[in-house]
Design brief:
binds adenosine-5'-diphosphate, Transferase(Phosphotransferase), domain 1, 2 domains, 31% helix, binds magnesium ion, 3-stranded antiparallel β-sheet, alpha+beta, globular, Phosphorylase Kinase, domain 1, 5-stranded antiparallel β-sheet
């Protein structure tokens, strides 16, 4: 790691700090991320290796942040005990190897970017063509992950990196991705950040699939149009109520099996609102695409690949992508 000069901290997320850094030998600016995938003294846990090679494979797409290198580091813990006798009794613990992931550096993320339009000296809507382009790139990246059997499971504006100059969007933070080609087992309950979390996850469904990402994509689409979150809940219960108040309380007809999900309760029966009211700046095609991403029944939700062919993108010059 001596080959990198840390420039500034650019993010602090769930698993540690992300630094903007310069590779001394080449001058290349990169993002350094210490992974949570700590290895034990025996070596690298196979799951860590699997995830890294998955990341390496997926990052071949221009819609996924490029993983440039994986650095292994032996970090020997400092011995703060200056008692000579104690030191003799307790030899220092073995060194703890770590993995550093070296990514291409992008200048901002979608959350910070939306904030510049919302707050800033000159609050204004995001240009509709920009929303269209970002959503297209997001769907390309998600389609790429899903075609390789990988769910992202934590899609949110903070995890979408942008090159502002070039108008490029890339998916980051694939750390929670798991291959689902191998047994579709029950995942842990806590995965997607609340605001972007699909209703089947909130209701404790044990088998879920690509639809969880498409729900998040819908929430992100709406947030670009609104410059604020569509469903900002502060607890799992409030999150569901926020969703139900806009889309109506789901019924067995719409979503067979919903009332049998683990965390289903009897909720007030809200009628669906007109979705266009929640995203007044979106035209009818945009609202139609959004409604297909926010279908209650995950089986009815539009796939990333199908979304690319939706009429909302008819006015986009797809030859550029
Ligand atoms: P975490 O698992 O901690 O959420 P992320 O990979 O999402 O880790 O990184 C946290 C934040 O750091 C991101 O929201 C983003 O602002 C910044 N960041 C991450 N990767 C890069 C990168 N390649 N270039 C620039 N900024 C980055
Ligand atoms: Mg993140």
């Amino acid at each position: 790691m001596e080959n990198y000069e840390k420039l500034e901290k650019v993010g602090e997320g769930t698993y540690g700090k992300v630094y903007k850094a310069k590779e001394k030998s080449t001058g290349q600016v990169v993002a350094l991320k210490k992974t949570r995938l700590e290895m034990d003294e025996e070596g690298v846990p196979p799951t860590a290796l699997r995830e890294v090679s998955l990341l390496q494979m997926l990052s071949q797409s221009i819609y996924i942040v490029r993983l440039l290198k994986v650095e292994h580091v032996d970090k020997t813990p400092k011995n703060n005990n200056h008692h000579p006798s104690a030191a003799a009794d307790h030899p220092p613990p073995p060194s703890k190897p770590l993995l550093y992931l070296v990514f291409e550096y992008l200048d901002t993320d979608l959350k910070k970017y939306i904030d510049t339009y919302r707050k800033g000296p000159n609050p204004r809507p995001l240009p509709p063509t920009l929303i269209q382009s970002f959503l297209f790139q997001l769907c390309m990246g998600v389609a790429h992950c899903h075609s390789h059997g990988v769910l992202h499971r934590d899609l949110k504006p903070q995890n979408l990196l942008l090159d502002q100059q070039k108008g490029i969007l890339k998916i980051a933070d694939l750390g929670l991705g798991r291959a689902f080609t191998v047994p579709l087992k029950s995942y842990t309950h806590e995965i997607v950040t609340l605001w972007y979390r699909a209703p089947e996850v909130l209701l404790g469904s044990t088998h879920y699939s690509t639809g969880v990402d498409m729900w998040s994509v819908g929430c992100i689409f709406a947030e670009m149009a609104r410059r604020q979150a569509l469903f900002p809940g502060d607890s799992e219960f409030q999150q569901l109520l926020n969703i139900f108040k806009v889309l109506g309380t789901p019924t067995e007809e719409q979503w067979p099996g919903v009332t049998s999900l683990r965390d289903w309760h009897v909720y007030p029966r809200w009628e669906p609102q007109t979705l266009a009211r929640a995203v007044p700046s979106l035209g009818p095609e945009g609202v139609d695409l959004l409604s297909k991403m926010l279908k209650y029944n995950p089986a009815d939700r539009i796939s990333a690949k199908a979304a690319l062919d939706h009429p909302y993108f008819d006015t986009l010059d797809k030859s550029q992508y």
